[in-house]
Specification:
Helix content: 40-55%
Order of helices and strands: HEEHHHHEEEHHEHHEEHEEH
Structural class: alpha+beta
Distance between the termini: 87 Å
Strand content: 15-25%
Largest sheet: 5 strands, antiparallel
Radius of gyration: 36 Å
Number of strands: 10
Length: 315
C-alpha cells in the first residue's frame, strides 16, 4: 500500500512537536474537562511539574489556588463556555506553592462532527510585567496622594495662615498708632499669641509634605476644646469687629486621634464661614458642641447667620 501520505503526516507531526518543544512559551494540550494530556518542556519549567506528574489531572488540581479565577464561575467560565478562542490573565501556582501570573491563549479544537475534542493553550509567564504594572499603579497612587496633600497645604495656607497674617498685620498697625500704654500691653499679648499660633501651625503643617502616603500622617490625641480656642485666637479680631460670640460646649478632656493641622483647618473653616456669612441684622453667635451616639460622638457647629441657599447649593 501507498504509505507516502502517512510519512508526510509523521513528518509534519515531528515538525509540530519540534516547534512546541522549542518555544519559550508553555504549550498544553487539554481534554474536554481541562485535564492535562500533554505539555512541552517550557511549561514543565514554568509550573515545576513533570508531564508524568501532571498527566490526567485537571488544571484546577494542578495549578489553580486561592487567587485563581474559577473554571466553574465568573469570567473564565464564561470564556470557556463560549466555545471560541480566548485570552485571559490568571494567577497560577507552581508545584512548591509559589504564585505566578500567566496569560493563557486558549483555542478549543473540534472534530469533523463539530464535537469538542481538546483545548490547546499557549501559556506566557507575565509575572514581571504584572510587577511593573503594580509598581506603576503604586507610584501613580503616591503621586495622587502627594498632589492631594499639596492641595490641602495650599488650602490651609490660603485660609488659616491668611488670618494669622492679617491679625499680625492689623495688630502691628495698631501698636504703631496707639499711645495708650495699657492698650499697647494688651496688643503685645495679642501679637505674641498670633505669632505663636502661626509658628505652631507652620510646624504642624510642615510634616504634611514629608510623609510618603496619607496613612503615614502623624496623628495625635488632640483636645478638641484646645483647638477651638486656637481658632478663637485666630479669629479674635474678626469676631470683635462684628461683635460675635463664640460658645464652645466641649469637655476639656474630650480628645480625638487626628492630624493637628487638619483639625485646626476643619474647625477654622466651619467657624470662619459662620462669621463671614453672618446676618448683619442680628448679634452673631457660633456654637460648637458634642452629642454622644451609640458608637461614636458627633460634633456640631451651628450659627445664626445667613445660612445656605439649598436650592442653589444643596447638591
Amino acid at each position: 500500500r501507498d504509505i507516502q501520505k502517512e510519512h508526510q503526516t509523521e513528518a509534519e507531526l515531528r515538525k509540530l512537536s519540534l516547534v512546541a518543544n522549542s518555544t519559550s512559551n508553555g504549550v498544553l494540550i487539554l481534554g474536554t474537562q481541562m485535564e492535562v494530556e500533554w505539555f512541552n518542556d517550557s511549561y514543565a519549567k514554568m509550573s515545576a511539574y513533570s508531564l508524568e506528574e501532571a498527566k490526567g489531572k485537571n488544571m484546577v488540581q494542578l495549578v489553580h489556588g486561592p487567587k485563581s479565577l474559577k473554571l466553574t464561575e465568573g469570567k473564565l467560565h464564561e470564556k470557556i463556555a463560549s466555545g471560541r478562542p480566548f485570552a485571559i490573565e490568571n494567577i497560577n501556582y507552581r508545584k512548591n506553592g509559589d504564585e505566578y501570573w500567566v496569560e493563557s491563549r486558549v483555542t478549543p479544537i473540534f472534530d469533523n462532527d463539530q464535537k469538542l475534542s481538546n483545548y490547546i493553550s499557549i501559556e506566557i509567564d507575565i509575572s514581571e510585567r504584572k510587577q511593573k504594572e503594580t509598581s506603576f499603579q503604586k507610584n501613580m497612587q503616591l503621586i495622587a496622594e502627594q498632589n492631594e496633600r499639596l492641595r490641602s497645604f495650599a488650602h490651609i495656607v490660603s485660609h488659616n495662615f491668611r488670618s494669622h497674617g492679617s491679625n499680625i498685620q492689623q495688630l502691628s498697625k495698631e501698636l504703631m498708632v496707639t499711645g495708650d500704654e495699657m492698650l499697647r500691653e494688651e496688643l503685645h499679648k495679642f501679637l505674641d499669641t498670633s505669632a505663636t499660633g502661626l509658628m505652631e501651625a507652620l510646624d504642624e503643617l510642615s510634616s504634611l509634605l514629608k510623609v510618603d502616603s496619607a496613612s503615614d500622617l502623624p496623628t495625635e490625641e488632640l483636645s478638641v476644646l484646645e483647638y477651638c480656642e486656637r481658632v478663637r485666637q485666630i479669629l479674635a479680631r474678626q469676631s470683635m469687629e462684628i461683635n460675635a460670640e463664640l460658645h464652645f460646649d466641649i469637655p476639656p478632656n474630650f480628645k480625638v486621634q487626628f492630624y493637628p493641622a487638619y483639625l485646626e483647618s476643619v474647625l477654622f473653616n466651619l467657624i470662619s464661614n459662620a462669621l463671614r456669612y453672618h446676618d448683619p441684622e442680628k448679634e452673631p453667635w457660633v456654637k460648637v458642641w458634642l452629642e454622644d451616639a451609640p458608637n461614636f460622638t458627633r460634633l456640631f457647629v451651628a450659627d445664626n447667620g445667613l445660612g445656605i441657599d439649598m436650592e442653589r447649593h444643596g447638591d
